[in-house]
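Technical appendix A lists one of the benchmark inputs used to test multi-chain prediction within the project. The record comprises two sequence entries:
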Amino acid sequence: MAEPIRIDFRHRQSAHCESGVAANLLNHQGIELSEAMAFGIGAGLFFGYFPFIRINHLPLVTYRAAAGGLLKRFSRLPGFNLSRQTFSSAGQAMAELDSRLAQSIPVGLQTGVFWLPYFPKALRFHFNAHNLVVYGKEGDNYLISDPVFPEPVLCPAEDLARARFASGTLAPKGKMYHFSRADRDFDRRLAIIEGIDSVCSMMLKGIFPLIGVRGIRFLAGRLCRWPERLGAEKAALHLGHVVRMQEEIGTGGGGFRFIYAAFLQESGILLGDQSLRTCASTLQAAGDRWREFAAMAARICKSRPKADDTYAAAADHIRQCAVMETQAFNSLRDWVRGAS
Amino acid sequence: MQTDPPDTADSITDGLQTVSYAQNSLGQLEQVKGQGWQPVNDVNRQAWREIEKQIEQARGRVVSGRASCLYYYMIANQMSIMLLARYSGQSSLRVRLHLIPFFFRRLTAGQLQRYADLFQISSKDLKKGALLPAVYSSAQKHG
């Protein structure tokens, strides 16, 4: 049997897998970066409602940027290089992983959670864009730093190979990556400004009415008509799906709004800028409102609504979120204009 | 943001501590560990009830002979015909045929093995039509 490999890698638990992996990998390269900072610089925040794309017969709602987008943004920053590879065969993909580990390089992988045995049963859906870091191998088990878990976990090689070659939407095709270059003295200020700028334009300037704050309003408009269009049972399933995309593991709460607000706060301190902190509190308030929506929606789904829990009231909460987010991103855009 | 007291027995993460962001006494958002938020557990459970309902329906169709046991395994593993076709590397038309008992009984040993590997059961069980739990059910043991 091959020698066990255990790279000295610091596992830090995080809320979101992609920002967690980015932050942990960069930390390993000597760049101290919090998860929230990675999320913000990587422009992870988004909103999109795409009723014509179905997940288990339910419309796609997303509160975050497309899977892989965050890492891609990092790779485009000056001073950074992300080496990425996909494979056509599992054997080759695992061999390549082993050779990276032998060179003491912790490797990021895109995987399908359905096949990961260490995941809690309740979260094992066919979701193929889960990121994790492999940093060791003991016998036939890989040592994994899965950012949403409190401690590192072990995963048998066979299961990991399955997860790396999950099929369907966002199929990872064995994708693996690591930062081949990461500049310790990169321009944080510029990276923050560009990250915020990108999120602002996605949230405010989309020409497509299904994304950004217009998408939030669009969802509100559709959501209040679900009971009559779909019937009570199907409407509840749709509603529950929205809440799951917003609050389930990996979101940090409030549909990623809290983690983004944490990024804005941290940036405000780093750049000594009070206006960023004001934007952070507006966005945090929006996150709170998203949570109120989620709590109400969950009561409706559970058929235990309070007196004024209705789809119309839930839609109203969402509209208020849209108002608050418009305000937050407008002032952020002004800040970007002033700063650059 | 106040969070409802989490109900451990009810947690969807099997008691696993996950991270979310909440405001501390200084008004700063920071990472906090917790057992998740009750509304999330509620809607997750709702999604699983729906899946279980589909699995029961599938079981009924197999028992009554209207579908092959492959249909049960497909539904139990939350797959569609399209996804099963991708995983087994064949056209969805072929998969569709294999869901019919008449064609399923005529599968070669190799084809059976391929499906059995995918669903992590033995091809013997698959051939005799045993309706075993889905892939993820074993996770609880070492979860």
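The mean pLDDT of chain A is 94. The beta strands of chain A are 5-6, 45-55, 58-64, 80-85, 107-111, 130-138, 141-145, 153-156, 176-182. Comparable benchmark entries are summarised in Table A2.
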